[in-house]
Amino acid sequence: MSTAMNFGTKSFKPRPPDKGSFPLDHFGECKEFKEKFMRCLRDNNFDSTLCRLQSKEYLECRMDKQLMTKEPLEKLGFKDLMDQVKEESQEKP
């Protein structure tokens, strides 16, 4: 007598998470930016608010190298930095 139960033939198809997980940088393409960010964190007692520019640069590198999905920087929490860049470029003649 078989005790195996068959709950149907549905197969599980894994899919990557929408946010929060992305491929590792195996080839070190963004290592320089990661190191700058980590150095900033260490120098500022791991207060990430003081390292937002380095964080933005690191994420930009990851997006440029297709290590994460390209997202508008405003959507990633950098709207104020983007507004600041726009204001500075408008002030220059």
UniProtKB/TrEMBL annotation:
Chain ranges of the CHCH domain: 30-63
The UniProt record lists the keyword Disulfide bond: yes
Localisation: Cytoplasm
PROSITE patterns the record matches: CHCH (PS51808)
Organism: Hemibagrus wyckioides
Assigned protein family: Belongs to the COX19 family.
Gene Ontology CC: one annotated term: mitochondrial intermembrane space
Record-linked Pfam families: CHCH (PF06747)
Gene Ontology terms: biological process: mitochondrial respiratory chain complex IV assembly
Region feature (Disordered): 1-20
Record's keyword terms, sorted: Cytoplasm, Disulfide bond
Keyword flag Disulfide bond: yes
Protein name, as recorded: Cytochrome c oxidase assembly protein COX19
